[in-house]
Amino acid sequence: MTAKELRTRYVNFFKERGHKEIASASLLPENDPTVLFTTAGMHPLVPYLLGEKHPLGKRLTDIQKCVRTDDIDEVGDNAHLTFLEMLGNWSLGDYFKQESISMSFDFLTNHLHIPPDRLAVTVFEGDDMVPADTEAEGIWRSLGLTEQQLFRYGRIENWWGPAGQTGPCGPDTEIFYDMGKPCCGPDCGPACSCGKYVEIWNNVFMQFKKEADGSFSGLKQKNIDTGMGLERILMILNEKTNVYETELFLPVMTKLEEILTQQDTTLPERDKRIICDHIRALSFLLGDPKKISPSNTEQGYILRRLLRRIIRLFKKAGIHENYLCTLSEVIILQYQDTYPELKENRDFILEQLQKEYLLFSKTLDDGLKKADRYLEQLGTGGTLSGELAFKLYDTYGFPIEFTLELATERGCLVDMDGFYQKFKEHQEKSRQGAAGKFAGGLADHNEQTARLHTATHLLNGALRKVLGTEVFQRGSNITSERLRFDFSFDRKLTTEELEQVSAIVNEAIRNNLDVVLEEMTPEQAYEAGAVGVFSGKYGDIVKVYTIPGYSKEICGGPHAKNTGELISFRILKEEASSAGVRRIKAVIGAE
Ligand code: SER
Questions:
Q1: How many whole angstroms from 163 Cα to the centroid of ligand 1?
Q2: Looking at ligand 1, which atom is closest to the CA of residue 174?
Q3: Ligand 1 atom closest to the CA of 40, numbered from 1
Q4: CA-wise closest residue to 473 among 456, 486, 455
Q5: In Å, what is the CA distance from 238 to each residue of 1, 112, 242, 443?
Q6: What is the pTM of this model?
Q7: Nearest C-alpha to atom 3 of ligand 1 is from which residue?
Q8: Distance from the alpha carbon of residue 118 to the mean position of ligand 1, in angstroms
Q9: Is 509 helix (H, G, I), strand (E, B) or coil?
Q10: From the CA of 203, how far away is ligand 1's center (Å)?
Q11: Which of 335, 356, 357, 359 is nearest to 346 (CA)?
Q12: Contact, 433 vs 555, CB < 8 A?
């Protein structure tokens, strides 16, 4: 069966059973500040799972693009992927366990013709908060599953969600396919990672909401949330042993093999799979209508990590040309009919891959030499210090996961705590910059520096308006004469862009706007759309300064009371600061 057929069959099956089809949402979740990416089909449906009325009714179905970063280390085995398509169906306070389980069983066995004896299922065994799910177990038994096919597990295995820190969740029943391998031991079962059982479908009985304080409250309605991985089902239906052998990976894998042969080199199977997985995830992330690009923060950092890992693997094979675009083009071509956004954003995808390659490949060789030297000195079993790991991060742009991978390959460890300690110290320093604790400390706090600080916020907001929200503050330095602002962006700004930025800041000044200070939790600040450093501990209270319509930032202050105090704003200079970072110097006051 082809992927196309499978998608159609799934959606039609549920449409015939009263479900309305909804479109796949963006990979960047809209209303959930606690997760970086859409990891399951339920994300875009959170308000409806919490009781909001959905305009299309109580039964929904879709195919949702998902990105899961939790599984990155397992990518390259037989079944884990960074990007996946999730087939899902939902009941929003309509049917519950009986109908949900029966429909799943019917679809798998009667419509996809999977022999029932190849299935194994797990149910929640109960704990002191929620009783054992004997109802789900009874339903499975009534469908003919035997004791050998039924497994009971606790919260780690049989409880799903919330996706972030808070939100809808509940016990679930997971459906596995038995790959036919012998058991690896007496405890072998679906929870075992030996590869005998592959999870294919998860039916969640969403009845609870996890609150910010960790407690669970009952939901207004009992919902069903299910998710089935398209790639895995395809693997099973076509009798493949791993997802990389399915038609979804065939073209990109073939192209990669071609490149390796042409270059007269080779890579271990797992590395090849990682390259194919990552380039597919990157193509979808860069091709998302919300257009994110590689950076050093949040989602952009994940992109950077994926990209840099591929570049490193190519170098490992002795390949120094950039093949990212060649591989991505294969993915775009393959998926563009189903996901037209890939075609629409083709130029952006390829441009970003090319840029990041140029940015990183320059420093990669030097960094690799340095890393090799450090690791050689340590010898097998040695531990790379946090300081050196941070140096590789800071000077050569090596994501920590990447350094860890290099160290592991050579049988070394990395002092991760030491790294994070260094990282925090560094962040603290830049935060002090960002918070406007100026070079001279408190002594320099005067009205003029406060006004320049407000101008910095307006500048940050204006840059994000003109250049896009991938612009992030990378540093700030204020004297009583001028402001200096560093931000992520990787080319020179045009005169027109600089004029637009100036015009926006001056417009805000002319509008005589009050600068509003509020205190809130970092979560609330994030939700309110504030930019800034969100690394505060849970329970922290942060200060948020808002200039309505122009800026909202987490910041220590102080600021001007009203934008009118700035009189006017003028950019003196725009220049490169370091790789991928630009610097603007500007002044305020009467001309
Ligand atoms: N939300 C559940 C999962 O991701 C079912 O879709 O497994």
A1: 9
A2: 7
A3: 4
A4: 486
A5: 7, 11, 10, 71
A6: 0.71
A7: 227
A8: 22
A9: helix
A10: 7
A11: 335
A12: no
Tell me, in angstroms, the distance from the centre of ligand 1 to residue 264's CA: 43
Residue 99, amino acid? E
Which is the closest atom of ligand 1 to the Cα of 39?
Answer: 4
227 Cα nearest atom in ligand 1: 6
- 162 prior amide bond cis, ω within 30: yes
State which amino acid sits at residue 59.
Answer: R
State pLDDT tens for residues 226-253: 999 999 999 999 999 999 999 999 999 9
Which residues lie below 8 Å from residue 101, measured CB to CB, with a gap of 6+? 136, 139, 140, 143, 173, 203
Ligand 1 centroid, distance to 233 Cα (angstroms): 15
More confident residue, 83 or 521: 83
The mean-pLDDT minimum among 112-121, 283-292, 324-333 falls in 283-292
**Nearest Cα to Cα of residue 406 among 364, 358, 359, 357:** 364
List CB contacts of 316: < 8 A, sequence separation 6 or more: 267, 271
pLDDT band at 281 (very low <50, low <70, confident <90, very high): very high
Best residue among 225, 230, 233 to mutate for probing ligand 1's pocket (most ligand atoms within 8 Å of CB) is 225
> Residue of the nearest CA to atom 1 in ligand 1?
40
Give dist(CA 271, CA 314) in Å, integer.
9
Q: How far is CA 353 from the centre of its chain?
A: 17
User: Which protein residues are within 6 Å of ligand 1, measured from CB?
Assistant: 40-42, 88, 160, 202, 204, 225-227
DSSP 81-112: -SEEEEEEEEEESS--HHHHHHHHHHIIIIIS
By most ligand atoms within 8 Å of CB, the mutation choice from 14, 24, 39, 42 for ligand 1 is 42
Res 20: pLDDT: 96
pLDDT score, position 134: 96
User: Residue 204 CA: which ligand 1 atom is closest?
Assistant: 5
Q: Which residues pair with 159 in a beta bridge?
A: 171
Torsion of CA 175, 177, 183, 187, to 10 degrees: -10
Judge whether 558 and 453 are in contact, CB under 8 Å. Answer: yes
Query: What pLDDT is attached to residue 36?
Result: 84
